[in-house]
Amino acid sequence: MTGAILSMDAVSLSFKDKRVLDNLTFSIPRGQTFGFLGPSGAGKTTTIKLLTRQLAKDAGRISLLGRPIERASAADYERIGILSDTSALYDRMSIADNLRFYARLRGVSHGRVPYLLERMGLTDSAKTLIKNCSKGMRQRAALAASLVHQPELLFLDEPTSGLDPAARAEVHKMLGELRDRGTTVFLTTHDMAEAEAVCDRVAILNDGAIVACDDPEELKLRYARNRVVIRTRTRGTFEVAKDAAGADLIDDLMRAGELVSIHSDEPNLEEVFLEVTGREF
Ligand SMILES: Nc1ncnc2c1ncn2[C@@H]1O[C@H](COP(=O)(O)OP(=O)(O)OP(=O)(O)O)[C@@H](O)[C@H]1O
């Protein structure tokens, strides 16, 4: 099946008189890993709450699994997985028992539990009670719990927050495998390097509005700096615009034997973010 699995059209939401989401429009084709990026307070979690019906929009249209969200059935929600800071794991149960519990809750067999434990690097801690787990272990266990029923669409709210680099890399690898299997992922993060590593497309949210939405590579090209850095033998290091005058200057420097190096920085997504929002993380 192709087409959008999830879309928002001119969606807005206010808390009292404060507009938190402003005219959001985007659509996510089946199988895509879509990054929803923005600094703290931009509205990422609120958007996930709208998409998972923990909140209701004030205006606009949301389509989920091909139908208006208001008409989504319980069976539709069985096709969805959610990882958020409100994902509940039972403190007095072990990691493995939690996963088996979630499998029962979702009406699927326990068969995938050992695989998920292994993929999340939790096999050796399978019998550890959640209350004795580190934050990183809990986060990996919660991610495994969101996957027991092999959802078609997965909402991940800051999935690597609080993880050490090894656990973060494990989650990224898992996201790659989910993409290979055709799972659609809606991922919020304020980590631009993470978005570059795992997302097919990203939307950048600032103060509740989408200020850019595209393939990360396209965004980087669009916001590429229009300058190169020149190092010379006797005239120091300076920036030159990528235009005809700059080309003439570089030509002169080369002929004079002055040019040592030309360096052109590819912007990363963090620079794109700063450019489109004027903010810092
Ligand atoms: N229940 C609520 N009542 C009033 N304001 C709220 C409520 N929930 C969130 N907000 C406000 O809405 C805005 C967006 O919050 P949200 O939690 O969606 O941001 P976020 O991008 O997920 O931030 P973070 O990265 O810190 O999780 C913030 O200004 C927040 O204070």
UniProtKB/TrEMBL annotation:
Bilayer topology term: Peripheral membrane protein
Coiled-coil region: none
Presence of keyword Transport: yes
Main location: membrane
Gene3D superfamilies named among the record's database cross-references: P-loop containing nucleotide triphosphate hydrolases
Molecular function GO terms recorded: ATP binding
Keywords recorded for this protein, A-Z: Antibiotic resistance, ATP-binding, Nucleotide-binding, Transport
Localization annotation: Cell membrane
Occurrences of domain ABC transporter (ranges): 6-232
CDD domains: ABC_DR_subfamily_A
Full protein name: ABC transporter ATP-binding protein
Organism in which the protein naturally occurs: Adlercreutzia faecimuris
